[in-house]
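Technical annex, item 7. During the second reporting period the consortium partners agreed on a shared format for inverse folding records so that results from different sites could be compared directly. Each record opens with the tokenized structure and is followed by the designed sequence. A conforming record, contributed by the partner at site C, is shown below for reference.
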């Protein structure tokens, strides 16, 4: 099976951190979007679509975080853990 997304080490990317598919109710437009990030660059991307017709990754936002993990609560809301600060942030609507 081929990968659904690839990233090189340009723009400071060094270590992709896998994420979760958004299933929360707070941001309905993001339903079924897969979020993931990079530890070194702090970039967060989204993948949209079913695995057989996946769109190219979309850059969602840039951070200064050392993204070490993603999490999901019981309602499907997503969180990002920053190893550098030891802080957990919730994905919220801008």
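Designed sequence (site C submission):
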């Amino acid at each position: 099976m081929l990968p659904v997304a690839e990233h090189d080490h340009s723009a400071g990317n060094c270590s992709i951190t896998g994420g979760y598919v958004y299933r929360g109710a707070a941001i309905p437009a993001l339903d079924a979007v897969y979020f993931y990030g990079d530890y070194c660059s702090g970039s967060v991307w989204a993948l949209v679509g079913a695995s057989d017709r996946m769109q190219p990754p979309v850059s969602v936002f840039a951070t200064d975080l050392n993204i070490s993990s993603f999490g999901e609560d019981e309602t499907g809301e997503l969180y990002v853990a920053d190893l550098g600060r030891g802080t957990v942030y919730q994905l919220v609507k801008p």
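The longest strand covers residues 16-21. The mean pLDDT is 92. All partners now use this format for quarterly exchanges.
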